[in-house]
Amino acid sequence: MTRRGAGMVALAAAAVVLLALTLRIAVASLSPLLTAIQRDFDVPAAVVGLIGMAPPAAFALAGMFAPSIERRIGLERLVLVAAALAAAMLVLRAVAVEAAGLLAATAGVFAAVGVANVLLPAVVKKYFPSRIGLMTTVYSSTMAVATFVPPLVAVPLAGAIGWRGSFLVWAAVAVAAVVPWVAMLLRARASHADEIEEPRASVLARVVRVPQTWALVVTFAVNSSAAYGLFAWLPPLLVDVAGVGAVQAGGLLALFSFMGMPVALVVPVIVSRVRRTTPFYAVAVVCGLVGVAGLLLAPAAATTLWVVLVGLVPLMFPMVLVLFGMRTRSHDTAVALSGFVQSVGYGLAALMPLAIGVTHEITGGWTAGIVLLGAAVLCIIPAAVVVSRNETIEQAWERRTGRTW
């Protein structure tokens, strides 16, 4: 590798890590401060509900539009736009003076984050083609850290410098994430490496005709359904069915969130080395069903164990991220696959928190919601069979159609 090439790869690594920090900080830094914000201006329950629904909804919309925009302006340019928009919206969130402004800035943040979510696997595919597992581990682990750290420090930070100051600290991280993307774009331009390929609208049309794509959609949807459903409802569910206190329930939610950290560290590297997915699906299904059964049949007997087991279902998130790179030949196919899977997957996942809430409202209990979660986990099994075929999206399309991609 040339010195110039090595410098570009190092710059890309820094850019990926800083952007990964921004992606989860933007999501995790708001809810702990809602009480402090409400001392300055009213935030109606409806707005809080919209903010809660915003991440999966915004991610789904971003997944729909990001691939077509990327084809027109280029990968690095669009990531830079997303990073800059996220930084700007985080600053605006810090200076909001009413609920509508807070909601608008938050929606803008999530839109930018959604675009970056789609593009990061393609960045890894382009700049680290022989280190996809390692780099996916790096950025998914970074996102895991950035998920559980802000809730721990946001409130003490707000106590020291105010909630606006706390927001500005996170905004500073987002601003720092913009810098290496600017440098990457300037380097690419200087070396004439930023030429945009001809738009290939046919890529998405081909991707959606491959069964593996839909199996990844199901996998991603179940993963995100479990995550967002339990992020929204796990504390009150545990208080009612397991008899724990509110503080302990909050700690168990933090434990559920933390389970993403160890799996993010090991899953992408192992998947890229063994090139098999069946064992990971098996762990997710067995652990998820045992955890669900425990919450249904003996919630108070081993509450922590049930939460840990259900918390292993989202191991599929880093697995799918690494498959976006491993199961595609080119970065434009990776963008199309990532965009479609995340768009449909997040759209379906947004229904789980709503479904658990509605069934709880109708029945007055949590049994129906827990059963829904178990039913979702069962949907992984046929998806696992399809994904176990170790072939790229392009190969699968060529095999099915008899034509060259």
Automatic annotation (TrEMBL):
It comes from the Bacteria. InterPro entries: MFS, MFS_Cyanate_Porter, MFS_dom, MFS_trans_sf. This is CP family cyanate transporter-like MFS transporter. It is found in: Cell membrane. The chain crosses the membrane at residues 44-66, 78-96, 102-124, 136-161, 167-186, 214-234, 246-271, 278-298, 304-324, 336-358, 364-387. Keywords: Membrane, Transmembrane, Transmembrane helix. It is a multi-pass membrane protein. It holds the Pfam family MFS_1. Residues 8-391 form the Major facilitator superfamily (MFS) profile domain. It comes from Microbacterium trichothecenolyticum.
